[in-house]
Amino acid sequence: MQRRYHKRSVFLMMSAIAGTAALPAFGEVYTFQPTSGVWNDENNWRYGNNQIGGYPDDDEDDAIIPAGKTVEVVSTSRTGSIDVRESGGSRGVIAIYENATLELGGETAPDSIVNGYVVFISSCQSLPMTSCPSGYCPAILRLMWETVTITSDNGKNGEIRGRSHWSDGEHPAFGGGYIRTEDDTSRRTLILEGSVRLVGHLGVYCALENNATVMVDDPRGVGTGDECDDCYEDNFGDACEYPPTELCHKDHMILGTWDQGDPDDFLKTGTGEWIVRGGTMTFQDCPIDTTGDWTVSNPCNALDGIDHSLLEFKDSEFASIDCLSGDFTVDGGRLKTELDLQTSGKLTFKSPKNAVQPEIFVAQDKTAVFSEVCP
């Protein structure tokens, strides 16, 4: 309450000093105007009765990105909610660039609607060391409230995406990004609802309630052996030593826990689908308790000897899998578990002709049990 009173006081004081010049009140609804432009520029937004004079920068503000508009996040920006719209196949876009953060969520803001795209664009390997410490400047979507819900309207398929292999070249994301909590020890939950999809090359370091779709869909796959088989050296002469979301320049979604966080605060749960259709989806350092279905398939039909898809549950001090109730379908690629895996859902294992054969790998001294009643 003190922060709100202070902000109103400043607003009233500044209005009095400025005479007839009015400033936006907190909790405004801003609509983005140009075809493209940066977030933190008041000339790019309108509020109220088509007024100029502010942009979303508070956890009670709402930001609307109409269809066909692209707003670029190039520094730290903040809003309570986003409404990324679609109309007639034309989508609005929020593009979060390297070394930039969109802070999302607030107490009074409604749930966010994404019928368009939120993309992470991080190509920082090309920057000089002085501009990019350790050769990596992530694009970040930071959760600023206890729960942040993102959904799509019925019949829409909004996407939160890192990296893209879109053939039409529309809004390609040349790198990955992080979805993370406010800090290493804060408990924040991202809730996906409706038909929104979380896709591609990302590090998801928050609690995730997936009631929609989480998917990796990179047809380049995971390589022929180790995941770094085909890495190119970066500009600093180092190969295969990128942080998780930059691994090998192939789509690799990592769902885990920050080093200083309590693993129980990073629970992965929900009723939605988990799909690997090329690339790698890795769960590490976090508990998993989900009722959703799991699908691993090979996006390449040619018999090229490569399992292009990998779903893996990595062993660590903090990793655990509760008895799952979703079905597993493995009709290409590889399911790998270093943890005990039990599910009351069924396993469908397909071995298509003239295609790379699917695999299920269970680590030594571990078990994988399907279609059993959970204890």
Task: List the keywords.
1 helix, disordered N terminus, single chain, mainly beta, 375 residues, 11-stranded mixed beta sheet, elongated, 11-stranded parallel beta sheet
What would you say this structure looks like, in words?
With 375 residues, this protein is mainly beta. A hairpin with a 2-residue loop joins strand 8 and strand 9. The N terminus is likely disordered.
Integer average pLDDT = 80
Strand proportion: 35-45%
Strand arrangement, major sheet: 3-1-4-7-12-15-18-21-24-27-30
The coarse silhouette is: elongated
* Count of helical stretches: 1
The beta-strand count equals: 36
Helix content: under 10%
Poorly predicted parts: 1-21, 124-135, 224-248
Reported for the largest beta sheet, the result is: 11 strands, mixed
Category by helix and strand content = mainly beta
Distance between the termini: 47 Å
Short description:
The chain is mostly beta strands. Helices cover 5% and strands 37% of the residues.
Question: How does the SSE layout of this entry go?
Answer:
Layout: H1 2-18, E1 29-32, E2 36-38, E3 45-47, E4 62-65, E5 70-73, E6 76-79, E7 81-84, E8 86-87, E9 90-91, E10 93-97, E11 100-104, E12 112-114, E13 117-121, E14 139-143, E15 147-151, E16 159-162, E17 177-181, E18 189-193, E19 197-200, E20 202-205, E21 207-210, E22 213-216, E23 252-255, E24 268-270, E25 273-276, E26 279-283, E27 287-290, E28 294-296, E29 309-313, E30 320-321, E31 328-330, E32 334-337, E33 341-343, E34 347-349, E35 359-362, E36 368-370
Parallel strand pairs: 1-4, 2-5, 4-7, 5-10, 6-11, 7-12, 10-13, 11-14, 12-15, 13-16, 14-17, 15-18, 16-19, 17-20, 18-21, 19-22, 20-23, 21-24, 22-25, 23-26, 24-27, 25-28, 26-29, 27-30, 28-31, 29-32, 31-34, 32-35, 33-36
Antiparallel strand pairs: 1-3, 8-9
